[in-house]
Amino acid sequence: MGAVISMQRRRSTRRDRNDLRQYDDLMTQWWRPEGPFAALHWLAASRRALVPAATDPGQILLDLGCGGGLMADTSAGYVHVGVDLTTSALVHARGHGLTAVRGDVSSLPIAPATASVVVAGEILEHVHDLDAVVAEICRVLRPGGTVLIDTINDTRFAGIALVHIAERLPGGPPRHIHDPSLFVDATRLQRLFAAGGVDLDVWGLRPSVRDYLRFLVDRRRSVEMVRTRSTAGVYQGVGVKVDVSGAVERSPS
Fold first, then answer.
1. Nearest Cα to 46, choosing from 207, 161, 171?
2. How far, in Å, CA of 163 to CA of 179, rounded?
3. Can you say whether residue 44 is alpha, beta or left, with left for phi > 0 and alpha for psi between -120 and 50 degrees?
4. Residue 236 — φ and ψ, nearest 5°?
């Protein structure tokens, strides 16, 4: 198995940065918590605490860039719809209970004001038209609905720490999975959401040092993502769309 993973990693390093085909190269790795998508498992867990409880049957949780469906365990009470461009990933997502839709997050095949929750986890730093993607999120989110994001800031620190260093660490992202030129400035992102009626609150995220050291010993151990004041690296955000009366619901703390 180790030889297979090593071969898959070597194959993916021959791809250009942010090449979508890397997810096909690694298609068997989605649900291996010690594998190349380990950090995605940690980040998905950090989002789970932020998903508000469903208040009515049939409410939709729209999971953008759902990959293999790592948010599947958090969608109780929702119709969990996952959108992704990678067919091999959607096979895994469908197997974990998602309604899997192949689609482009910059042009969602979803009706306006449909989703009660939109999750955009580790996807915004992969898109080429951020303005269009945020506009689509705001379009499909119902008034009073919640958006959850996490992404990577457009800073020199992020380029060094999350590309040149993290790609070489156990649990870090696969080689060449990120293109730093697509990293997302936090202030710009907040402005884009504000234009769509969403006041986005953001904070930084990092792995727990204690948990990560334990992960190095036992690769199947989960690592908690903890909040930080600095948003210079990975950051997370929650926002609620203004309703038609101009009021907003309280976002989860």
1. 207
2. 8
3. alpha
4. -125, 155
Select from 103, 223, 13, 205 the least CA-distant residue to 93.
103
Phi, psi of 117 (to 5 degrees): -135, 135
Question: What are the tens digits of pLDDT across the range 5-21?
Answer: 444 444 444 788 988 89
- The pLDDT tens digits for 198-237 are 999 999 999 999 999 999 998 888 999 999 999 999 999 9
Rounded to an integer, what distance in angstroms lies between the CA atom of residue 182 and that of residue 65?
15
List CB contacts of 84: < 8 A, sequence separation 6 or more: 65, 66, 67, 90, 93, 100, 102, 103
Residue ranges of the chain with per-residue pLDDT less than 50: 1-13, 246-253
Domains of the chain: 2-241 (3.40.50.150)
3-state SS, residue 183: coil
Q: What is the pTM of this model?
A: 0.89
Structure-token match 């309703």, residue found: 243
- Decide: helix, strand or coil at residue 27: helix
What whole-number distance in Å separates Cα of residue 86 and Cα of residue 24?
Answer: 7
What phi and psi, each to the nearest 5 degrees, are found at residue 86? -95, 110
- At 89, phi and psi to the nearest 5? -70, -40
Burial class (CB in 10 A: 0-12, 13-18, 19+), 239: buried
Which pLDDT value is given to residue 73? 76
Question: For residue 103, what are its two tokens?
Answer: 């689609």
**pLDDT value of residue 13:** 47
Residue 63's nearest CA partner among 108, 130, 120, 113 is 120
CB 234, CB 204: distance < 8 Å: yes
